[in-house]
Amino acid sequence: MSGEIYLARSKSIAARMLGDEMMVMSSRDSTLFSLNPVASIIWNAADGLTSLNEIVTTRICPAFDVEVNDALRDAETFARELAEHGILLLSEAPIERSGHSPQERK
Amino acid sequence: MSVLLGEISDKAMRMGVPLNVHLDITYRCNERCVHCYLDHDDHGEMTTSEIKKLLKEMAEAGVFILTLSGGEIMMRKDFFEILEYAREMTFVVKLKTNAILIRDREADRIRELGAESIQISIYSHRPEVHDAITKVPGSLKRSLNAIRFLKSKGLHVIIANVLMKGCAQDYTGVRALAAELGVETTLDPMITPMMDGSRSTLALNVDRGMLKQIFADPIFAPDVAAMCATPDPEDDSLMGSVPCSAGHSACYVSPYGDVYPCVQFPFPSGNVRRQRFIDIWNHSEQLNEVRSIRIRDLPNCSACGNVSSCTRCPGLAYMEGNMRGPSTQDCERSFMLTGIESVNLQNKRAGATAGLVQIRGLGGNSTLVNIQAGAAMAEGTSA
After folding, report:
1. Which chain A residue shows the shortest CA-CA distance from B12?
2. Which structural domain, as residue segments, surrounds residue A101?
3. What is the number of domains present in chain A?
4. pTM here?
5. Cross-chain Cβ contact B5/A32 below 8 Å
6. B68: β partners
């Protein structure tokens, strides 16, 4: 990975936890995603201010038996895939946003 | 339904999560459709703040797909405030509307707020037919203009084509119109009783001949052979299954805060003005009763030859008098699809015959004659 990546959830999505999985639908094309528990942690932590590196090292690795580099590679692939569908925003700098979804407030 | 959405729905059923809620925000309407099942007077709708409180409670309860309907949703001056809040709560929002108040500006706002789909009722491609049903001159033109506005914003528009006497024959015209507009269509050949129990609207249901013709049309039943195949013999897994998602992963909330298992299942199960949504969902005796019913518990239907393929609606059965009983409209529908006469239809036919014999036997008792004549007429209507 070349540098820090910051993630923010798009406001053009619908999302809800169902058990330990996050359901996410893009309002752009109605594509539905079901995120597994690891991806759900990344999704919930995507506040625009926390880097992907920090999410992986502080939330993923302690909870799952996984190497940091492996986890970072998988997390970046996941983030870029969701960004292609317009449901995650990616940036090399923190993303300041106004307005928050219910999940963001928790 | 996509495979993933099907899997999510199954999971919600297993977990008892209210994945889908249909919320009518008003019963007021600017059309007066002849088949409508609602009383359009306002008997004390929830306020904006009450609806926002409810939406927050529903989000916390796990509701994901929210259908906003009515009445006509645009009759509420706070409609966009409600929609904006619903999207802030990250629901998938589906709208049902006649759309005659939607113009370019409203279409823009709906696009900005990210509604997933907008379903619009169109009864015919012919203005004189559509407008006679809505009782609003010019309504077809206005609804079609709204579809064009919404489509121009890239929104997902669905034409709901309800079929009834007077317009059913136009369904191919509606489909051609939808193709021209670049939108989807759904066909619904079922007119339901009114919410107050009145069955006067049922006379508008299409007759058996038309129903058979529609079901034989490949555009309605892409795999006619499969749909019309003789049902598989009943099995244990079928007998242990639930009739539908009503009360299991879906429910309905009226503009007055009343909770029902489904919009077509007016079994009062609580009121969100008096209780939190999640408490009603988890603890309502009525919802728990609905949840307890399995196919094997249906005295007529579990023994019916159509049991494995029938789309029996427990709400229609409830409105017919017994939520564990048959829904005659679905019996008719199954009969048209499979050629198998349901136990219910057989009983009705036998009962009607017995009634006629009894009338003859009782001769001059005019009261009984009238009662039996009414039963025979009802049978004739449903046929």
Report:
1. A18
2. 6-105
3. 1
4. 0.86
5. yes
6. B23, B95
